[in-house]
Amino acid sequence: MASKRKVIVTGFEPFGEHEVNSSWVAVQELERLGVDESVDLHVCEVPVEYQAVQSLLPSLWKEHEPQLAVHVGVSGLATTVTLEHCSHNKGYKRLDNCGFCPASHCCMENGPDCIHSVLDMDAVCKMVNGSGLGVTLSVSQDAGRYLCDYTYYTSLYLGHGHSAFIHVPPLGKPYSSQELGRALRAAILEMLKQLQTHEGHCDRERRHQRHH
Protein backbone atom coordinates (compact mmCIF):
# COMPACT_ATOMS: atom_id res chain seq x y z
CA MET A 1 0.00 0.00 0.00
CA ALA A 2 1.36 3.43 -0.94
CA SER A 3 2.18 5.71 1.97
CA LYS A 4 -0.16 8.61 2.54
CA ARG A 5 0.69 12.00 1.10
CA LYS A 6 1.08 14.52 3.87
CA VAL A 7 -0.52 17.92 3.32
CA ILE A 8 -0.51 20.88 5.70
CA VAL A 9 -3.28 23.46 5.29
CA THR A 10 -3.33 26.65 7.32
CA GLY A 11 -5.80 29.51 7.80
CA PHE A 12 -5.47 32.76 9.73
CA GLU A 13 -6.97 34.09 12.95
CA PRO A 14 -9.27 37.17 12.87
CA PHE A 15 -7.71 40.60 12.21
CA GLY A 16 -8.81 44.15 11.41
CA GLU A 17 -12.33 44.24 10.04
CA HIS A 18 -12.37 40.43 9.66
CA GLU A 19 -13.92 39.45 13.00
CA VAL A 20 -14.52 36.01 11.53
CA ASN A 21 -11.68 34.99 9.24
CA SER A 22 -13.19 33.05 6.34
CA SER A 23 -9.81 31.44 5.62
CA TRP A 24 -9.81 29.47 8.89
CA VAL A 25 -13.55 28.71 8.57
CA ALA A 26 -12.86 27.31 5.06
CA VAL A 27 -9.91 25.23 6.33
CA GLN A 28 -12.05 23.77 9.13
CA GLU A 29 -14.69 22.91 6.53
CA LEU A 30 -11.99 21.19 4.44
CA GLU A 31 -10.94 19.20 7.51
CA ARG A 32 -14.56 18.06 7.97
CA LEU A 33 -14.79 17.05 4.30
CA GLY A 34 -11.37 15.40 4.18
CA VAL A 35 -9.28 15.59 0.99
CA ASP A 36 -9.29 11.89 0.09
CA GLU A 37 -8.17 8.65 1.73
CA SER A 38 -4.67 8.90 0.27
CA VAL A 39 -4.02 12.22 2.04
CA ASP A 40 -2.87 12.73 5.62
CA LEU A 41 -4.21 16.23 6.31
CA HIS A 42 -2.89 18.45 9.09
CA VAL A 43 -4.56 21.84 9.68
CA CYS A 44 -3.36 24.76 11.73
CA GLU A 45 -4.56 28.29 12.56
CA VAL A 46 -1.82 30.89 12.06
CA PRO A 47 -1.62 34.09 14.14
CA VAL A 48 -1.62 37.35 12.17
CA GLU A 49 1.86 38.12 13.53
CA TYR A 50 5.15 38.24 11.64
CA GLN A 51 7.20 36.78 14.49
CA ALA A 52 4.75 33.93 15.10
CA VAL A 53 4.99 32.98 11.40
CA GLN A 54 8.80 33.03 11.63
CA SER A 55 8.77 30.44 14.41
CA LEU A 56 5.69 28.40 13.44
CA LEU A 57 6.42 27.64 9.77
CA PRO A 58 9.89 26.11 10.20
CA SER A 59 8.49 23.81 12.91
CA LEU A 60 5.54 22.77 10.69
CA TRP A 61 7.84 21.91 7.76
CA LYS A 62 10.33 20.11 10.00
CA GLU A 63 7.81 18.13 12.05
CA HIS A 64 5.49 17.05 9.22
CA GLU A 65 7.76 17.07 6.12
CA PRO A 66 4.70 17.60 3.92
CA GLN A 67 4.59 16.99 0.19
CA LEU A 68 2.59 20.17 -0.03
CA ALA A 69 1.74 23.09 2.26
CA VAL A 70 -1.32 25.17 1.35
CA HIS A 71 -1.88 28.46 3.12
CA VAL A 72 -5.28 30.11 2.97
CA GLY A 73 -5.96 33.78 3.69
CA VAL A 74 -8.90 36.15 3.40
CA SER A 75 -8.97 39.09 1.00
CA GLY A 76 -11.69 41.71 1.37
CA LEU A 77 -11.12 42.57 -2.30
CA ALA A 78 -11.53 39.01 -3.61
CA THR A 79 -14.75 37.84 -5.25
CA THR A 80 -13.26 34.56 -6.48
CA VAL A 81 -11.09 31.89 -4.87
CA THR A 82 -7.67 33.20 -5.90
CA LEU A 83 -4.52 31.11 -6.43
CA GLU A 84 -1.28 33.03 -5.90
CA HIS A 85 1.55 32.33 -8.38
CA CYS A 86 4.40 33.72 -6.31
CA SER A 87 5.46 35.66 -3.24
CA HIS A 88 7.59 38.73 -2.57
CA ASN A 89 10.39 39.39 -0.11
CA LYS A 90 10.11 43.16 0.30
CA GLY A 91 7.50 45.75 1.17
CA TYR A 92 6.16 44.57 4.57
CA LYS A 93 5.26 47.87 6.23
CA ARG A 94 1.76 47.12 7.51
CA LEU A 95 1.55 46.43 11.27
CA ASP A 96 0.36 43.02 12.45
CA ASN A 97 -2.03 42.12 15.31
CA CYS A 98 0.74 42.96 17.80
CA GLY A 99 1.46 46.36 16.21
CA PHE A 100 4.76 45.01 14.83
CA CYS A 101 6.34 44.93 11.39
CA PRO A 102 9.86 43.80 10.38
CA ALA A 103 12.37 46.66 10.69
CA SER A 104 13.86 45.67 7.31
CA HIS A 105 10.34 45.48 5.75
CA CYS A 106 11.39 42.17 4.25
CA CYS A 107 10.88 38.45 4.90
CA MET A 108 14.43 37.28 4.61
CA GLU A 109 17.58 39.38 4.51
CA ASN A 110 19.35 38.62 1.21
CA GLY A 111 16.56 36.27 0.08
CA PRO A 112 15.42 36.34 -3.55
CA ASP A 113 12.99 39.17 -4.41
CA CYS A 114 10.34 36.75 -5.59
CA ILE A 115 9.80 32.99 -5.19
CA HIS A 116 7.43 31.02 -7.45
CA SER A 117 5.56 27.88 -6.54
CA VAL A 118 6.56 24.71 -8.44
CA LEU A 119 2.84 24.34 -9.19
CA ASP A 120 1.28 25.59 -12.40
CA MET A 121 -1.54 27.66 -10.88
CA ASP A 122 -3.06 28.47 -14.30
CA ALA A 123 -3.50 24.74 -14.96
CA VAL A 124 -5.01 24.14 -11.48
CA CYS A 125 -7.40 27.06 -12.04
CA LYS A 126 -8.46 25.80 -15.47
CA MET A 127 -9.10 22.23 -14.29
CA VAL A 128 -11.17 23.25 -11.25
CA ASN A 129 -13.14 25.87 -13.21
CA GLY A 130 -13.94 23.23 -15.81
CA SER A 131 -15.15 20.70 -13.24
CA GLY A 132 -18.59 22.22 -12.62
CA LEU A 133 -17.87 22.93 -8.96
CA GLY A 134 -19.93 26.13 -8.92
CA VAL A 135 -17.09 28.17 -7.39
CA THR A 136 -14.92 30.36 -9.62
CA LEU A 137 -11.13 30.30 -9.27
CA SER A 138 -8.71 32.90 -10.61
CA VAL A 139 -4.94 33.44 -10.51
CA SER A 140 -3.00 36.40 -9.09
CA GLN A 141 0.62 37.59 -9.16
CA ASP A 142 0.42 39.70 -5.98
CA ALA A 143 -0.36 38.19 -2.59
CA GLY A 144 -0.64 41.61 -0.93
CA ARG A 145 2.51 42.36 1.13
CA TYR A 146 0.94 41.47 4.47
CA LEU A 147 0.87 38.30 6.54
CA CYS A 148 -0.47 36.24 3.62
CA ASP A 149 2.43 37.15 1.33
CA TYR A 150 4.88 36.89 4.24
CA THR A 151 3.67 33.39 5.15
CA TYR A 152 3.74 32.27 1.52
CA TYR A 153 7.31 33.51 0.99
CA THR A 154 8.53 31.79 4.15
CA SER A 155 6.82 28.52 3.19
CA LEU A 156 8.02 28.59 -0.44
CA TYR A 157 11.55 29.16 0.82
CA LEU A 158 11.38 26.35 3.40
CA GLY A 159 9.58 23.90 1.10
CA HIS A 160 11.60 24.58 -2.08
CA GLY A 161 8.48 25.78 -3.87
CA HIS A 162 6.19 22.92 -2.73
CA SER A 163 3.72 25.38 -1.37
CA ALA A 164 0.55 27.17 -2.47
CA PHE A 165 -1.38 30.19 -1.30
CA ILE A 166 -5.13 30.59 -1.80
CA HIS A 167 -7.03 33.80 -1.07
CA VAL A 168 -10.72 33.40 -0.28
CA PRO A 169 -13.40 36.12 -0.16
CA PRO A 170 -15.17 36.94 3.13
CA LEU A 171 -18.02 34.53 3.97
CA GLY A 172 -21.15 35.07 1.93
CA LYS A 173 -19.38 37.37 -0.56
CA PRO A 174 -20.43 35.32 -2.48
CA TYR A 175 -19.54 31.85 -1.16
CA SER A 176 -20.60 29.86 1.90
CA SER A 177 -18.09 28.03 4.11
CA GLN A 178 -19.18 24.73 2.48
CA GLU A 179 -18.50 26.09 -1.01
CA LEU A 180 -15.09 27.42 0.07
CA GLY A 181 -14.22 24.07 1.66
CA ARG A 182 -15.16 22.23 -1.55
CA ALA A 183 -13.11 24.68 -3.64
CA LEU A 184 -10.04 24.14 -1.41
CA ARG A 185 -10.48 20.37 -1.69
CA ALA A 186 -10.75 20.48 -5.50
CA ALA A 187 -7.69 22.76 -5.83
CA ILE A 188 -5.57 20.63 -3.47
CA LEU A 189 -6.46 17.40 -5.30
CA GLU A 190 -5.44 19.02 -8.58
CA MET A 191 -2.17 20.28 -7.05
CA LEU A 192 -1.32 16.81 -5.72
CA LYS A 193 -2.07 15.28 -9.13
CA GLN A 194 0.29 17.78 -10.70
CA LEU A 195 3.06 17.06 -8.17
CA GLN A 196 2.68 13.31 -8.74
CA THR A 197 3.02 13.74 -12.52
CA HIS A 198 6.02 16.01 -11.98
CA GLU A 199 7.69 13.54 -9.58
CA GLY A 200 6.99 10.59 -11.92
CA HIS A 201 8.60 12.53 -14.76
CA CYS A 202 11.69 13.27 -12.59
CA ASP A 203 11.97 9.59 -11.59
CA ARG A 204 11.83 8.52 -15.25
CA GLU A 205 14.52 11.04 -16.12
CA ARG A 206 16.75 9.79 -13.29
CA ARG A 207 16.32 6.19 -14.41
CA HIS A 208 17.01 7.22 -18.01
CA GLN A 209 20.23 8.98 -16.94
CA ARG A 210 21.42 5.91 -14.99
CA HIS A 211 21.04 3.74 -18.08
CA HIS A 212 23.22 6.01 -20.22
From TrEMBL:
Subcellular location per UniProt equals: Cytoplasm
Which GO BP terms sit in this record? proteolysis
Q: Give the family this protein belongs to, as stated in its UniProt record.
A: Belongs to the peptidase C15 family.
Entry's Gene Ontology molecular function annotations: pyroglutamyl-peptidase activity
* Chief site of localization: cytoplasm
Give the EC number(s) listed in the UniProt record.
3.4.19.3
This chain's function reads:
Removes 5-oxoproline from various penultimate amino acid residues except L-proline.
Note whether Cytoplasm occurs among the keywords. Answer: yes
**In its UniProt entry, what is this protein called?**
Pyroglutamyl-peptidase 1
Keywords linked to the UniProt accession:
Cytoplasm, Hydrolase, Protease, Thiol protease
Which SUPFAM superfamilies would you find in this protein's record?
A: Pyrrolidone carboxyl peptidase (pyroglutamate aminopeptidase)
Mind naming one GO cellular-component term on file for this protein?
A: cytosol
Catalyzed chemical reaction(s): Release of an N-terminal pyroglutamyl group from a polypeptide, the second amino acid generally not being Pro
Q: What is its quaternary makeup? A: Monomer.
**A Pfam family assignment:** Peptidase_C15
